[in-house]
What we know:
Layout (H helix, E strand, L loop, with lengths): L3 E2 L10 H13 L9 H21 L6 E4 L2 H14 L5 E4 L5 H14 L2 E4 L10 H10 L4 E4 L13 H10 L3 E4 L19 E5 L10 E5 L25 H16 L1 H22 L4 E2 L13 E6 L6 H7 L2 E2 L15 H6 L2 H6 L1 E6 L6 H27 L1
Bound molecules: pyridoxal-5'-phosphate (PLP).
Pyridoxal-5'-phosphate binds next to helix 3.
Amino acid sequence: MDRIYLDNAATTPLSEEVIDAMVGVMKTNYGNPSSTHSLGQEAKVLIENVRRQVADYLHASPSEIIFTSCGTESNNMIIKSCVNHLGVERIITSPMEHKCVAETVIDMKKRKGVEVVYLRPNRKGDHDLAELEAALKKSDKKTLVSLMHANNETGNFLDIKKVAALCKENNVLFHSDTVQSMAHMEMDFSEIPLDFASCSAHKFHGPKGSGFAFVRKASGLKGIITGGPQERSLRAGTENVCGIVGLGKALEIALNNLEKDILHIKDIKKYAVESLQNEIEGVSFNGRSAEEDGSLCTVLSVLLPFKDPMIGLKLDMKGIAISQGSACSSGAAKPSMVLMMLLDEEELEHSTPLRISFSHLTTKAEIDALLESLKEIAATFQIEKANSTHR
Ligand code: PLP
């Protein structure tokens, strides 16, 4: 059975060229980048080349790129160090954040007594910047704003340029979880005055276990892992050379193909939206997911007009890998916090959320196959409904 992969917001398949680049490093460049001999220094050069490449992409300085193991680690490092080392006493955030931000913020509240202010998203998942501004002005406590760029469940975009400007005006630190949007669009941090951002290579056909934190120069941020002086002492531990090279290769491929891939993915998403609307009566879309400009093109959050908690399993048995919420919460019976914010009780009770997430590899034939399976599943509910009304 050919598998259909529609869970690219959870992770993406590695490109062949990325694998080849990584295998080359594993075979040849096994030196420790901290060693002074030539094998070590060759590995160091590989890392520094990727650092420069990432910095060029972000219009930042190489010294602002700190390689880490993943998006979760980057977000933890930034939030925890803001509290532990920069004197942050208040965090303004959203209930729509990924768990690695949400739980870290709660941890800082419990262990460090940090005050947490949650902005309330509207039914579309948007944040009111006037509410943010009022919150910024309300307290003299040293504050960090942590708001994600593109939501991993709905794809909803935050205007990070406006939020960064607002934070700067109010002398407040701004961190954005950019894990879903990095390498999926142009990013110019010389134009966006944010302080911190995060990235994970496995979201753009790079390896798992490799990411980075963007840390604005002279921010004073420190690491949370103590040990050697690697990564300017912000992230101790021998560097994951082949992971970093894999990240660099994946970024290079993503940027070389950006325009073409975005066009393709937008076309696939539009096709999926129209097909779902035509074939499944009563279907709707969560947040700004179905809007071309309001959301990341890789993510489509669907609400099916029947209740089927087993839908993920049923689709899996038909060879379709897809997520019901975010990957982290897909095993849980409870709807995700994001869906609880966007949907009312009636909708949560009688419908089934599904997150379809695309990549440049997704085809219209795969969307057709998903549609066929969804129609079969929907039909069983119509039969059940008809039988129950005749009883
Ligand atoms: N932030 C967002 C928005 C994500 O979607 C994810 C992964 O799903 C993460 C952070 C965590 O990234 P990682 O899997 O690299 O730890």
